[in-house]
Write a structure and sequence with these properties.
- The protein is α/β, with parallel strands linked by helices and 531 residues long.
- Among the domains are: 39 residues, Laminin, CATH 2.10.25.10; 41 residues, Laminin (Ribbon).
- It is 19% helix and 19% strand.
- A hairpin with a 2-residue loop joins β22 and β23.
- It is elongated, with a radius of gyration of 55 Å.
- It starts with a helix and ends with a helix.
């Protein structure tokens, strides 16, 4: 009985949905398929307002005549997750899809007539995770175009006519995991085109016109799969690849270089390349297999003729058809001997005349360039001298200052500074070698009680502070005014001396006259007495 009721319920639901499905569509509970019905913009609006789409998760509108998709007309499609508008007549992306139908996460506008997309065309696309824009007529992807698609995880842009990916192409696409530019006309990719997409895992660049890549173009990614089939590559910059799987099928590669890879891949596809099979290729393959027995490599030899079409793994590597060893690639020079260290490495045994990893340098110590009994030490392509006591310099050619003799005069102390010296002078001396006597220190060159004063502390220059009217470098010159004063003083002194002399003469004469008078007075008296 319960089973019978369930069947009736299912029939009723399907019947109800059939009754409310637009006539141009086939409707199930989760999917409305309205493709290939020549639906134009007017009919599209009728479909939007017909039926009960509350449970529909997919709306298929492929292969019609739609030129505009008004998202605001589909707001009642509240469960819708996928909208497919491929193979219509759209010339630009419909506006504000996430604003009006926030549940949609995959939006397909492939195979339309869209020739240009700007950043603002994706306003209101914040909930879109998967975007199909392949097989339009796009010629460029402008920088920052995905900034409004914060949740974008996958973009399929193959089979357009895009010629270049500029710096900032993936700005804003921090959550992007997978993007495909297969089948475009790419001839150039700028270094920072992918820089912002740090979570990118899958990158498809096959069937383009690329001949080279800028160094570091994938530096911010740890790709799981990188496909660059059917381009025109012949070489790559160092550390280009850090992907687990690299597909380089159908390019123009003749060899394989270890330095192309920042990370050893697990899978490497080289089919349809003109590979030259030799021990260099064998050695590179050995490098990839070392520590990774599960490494897979695919490709065939183009040259030499006796290896043409041979499988590079089965014939060149696994059976070692060329009998390659580490020494097969040795770069040992100057008749040195190659010695195998292990499968990947070798060493060069040099003669005494040579040195270096490959014996490529002359033995710089062969004729000991070190002077004064210095010891020569070999360092790669050059040498270093271990100097004996008292010497320094590249070749021990410089005698250490202060070591064997003291250049400092007048009891100065010699101090060594690397390969030169400085003198610590004793009191009263200065100069590089204490050869200069400090001014005024030991004697006073200033005459006539002049005071000696040094001009500075680093030279023997001085000046005399003269007194008493003297001037000149050493106070040796008497001034004119002083001379006149001295003349007057001398004159005064002479006049004074003359006056003193005159006074003395007068006093002398006066005394003499006095004595004569006394004698005259005494003479009559004595006569009288005698009488």
């Amino acid at each position: 009985m319960k089973g019978f009721l369930f069947i009736l319920l299912v029939v009723f639901i399907n019947y109800s949905q059939t009754q409310t499905c637009p006539e141009q569509c086939q409707c199930s509970r989760l999917k409305w398929t309205c493709g290939g019905q020549n639906i134009n913009d007017t009919v599209l609006l009728e479909i939007a307002h017909t039926g009960d789409p509350l449970t529909a998760e997919e709306l298929i509108l492929k292969v019609n005549l739609i030129t505009n998709f008004p998202a605001e007309a589909f707001t009642k499609f509240s469960k819708l997750e996928i909208i497919e508008l491929g193979q219509n007549l759209l010339t630009k992306p419909p506006a504000n899809v996430s604003d009006y139908i926030p549940s949609v996460h995959r939006f397909s506008i492939d195979q339309n007539k869209i020739s240009k997309i700007s950043r603002d065309d994706f306003l209101g696309y914040q909930n879109i995770k998967i975007l199909d824009i392949f097989s339009n007529t796009l010629t460029e992807i402008e920088p920052n175009i995905f900034e409004n698609l914060q949740n974008l995880q996958k973009v399929f842009a193959e089979n357009n006519q895009i010629e270049m990916l500029k710096n900032g192409t993936l700005n804003g696409a921090e959550n992007l995991l997978w993007i495909s530019f297969d089948g475009n006309a790419l001839g150039k990719i700028e270094r920072d085109a992918f820089a912002a997409a740090t979570k990118l895992e899958r990158l498809w660049l096959s069937y383009n016109k690329l001949t080279s890549l800028p160094e570091g173009v994938f530096r911010n990614q740890r790709l799981v799969i990188l496909k660059m089939k059917s381009n025109q590559f012949t070489d790559f910059p160092p550390k280009t690849f850090n992907s687990l799987s690299v597909d380089l099928t159908n390019n123009s590669l003749t060899t394989l270089q270890k330095n192309w890879f920042a990370l050893k891949p697990n899978e490497l596809y080289l089919e349809q390349n003109p590979l030259h099979c030799d021990c260099a290729l064998f050695n590179t393959m050995q490098y990839f297999f070392n520590g990774n027995d599960k490494f897979l490599i695919f490709g065939n030899c183009k040259t030499p003729a006796d290896l043409k079409d041979d499988d590079i793994y089965e014939d060149l590597y696994r059976t070692n058809k060329l009998k390659c060893t580490a020494c097969s690639l040795n770069e040992c020079q100057n008749n040195s001997t190659c010695k195998v260290v292990d499968k990947l490495d070798y060493t060069c045994v040099c003669s005494e005349k040579n040195q270096g990893r490959f014996c490529q340098f002359e033995n710089a110590c062969l004729d000991n360039p070190c002077q004064h009994n210095g010891t020569c030490l070999k360092i790669v392509d050059t040498f270093m001298c271990n100097c004996s006591s008292g010497f320094l310099g590249e070749k021990c050619e410089i005698e250490k200052p202060c070591y064997f003799n003291n250049p400092c005069q007048n009891n100065g102390t010699c101090l060594r500074i690397v390969d030169t010296f400085m003198c610590n002078c004793s009191s009263g001396f200065l100069g590089e070698k204490c050869e200069i006597e400090k001014a005024c220190y030991f004697n006073n060159p200033c005459q006539n009680n002049g005071t000696c004063q040094p001009l500075d502390e680093t030279s023997d220059k001085y000046q005399c502070l003269c007194v008493g009217g003297y001037s000149g470098q050493n106070c040796e010159i008497l001034g004119e005014e002083t001379k006149i004063k001295i003349g007057y003083i001398i004159l005064i002194i002479l006049v004074a001396l003359a006056l003193i002399a005159l006074l003395l003469v007068i006093l002398y004469l006066r005394r003499r006259t006095t004595k004569k008078a006394e004698i005259t007075e005494d003479t009559p008296l004595k006569s009288t007495q005698n009488t």
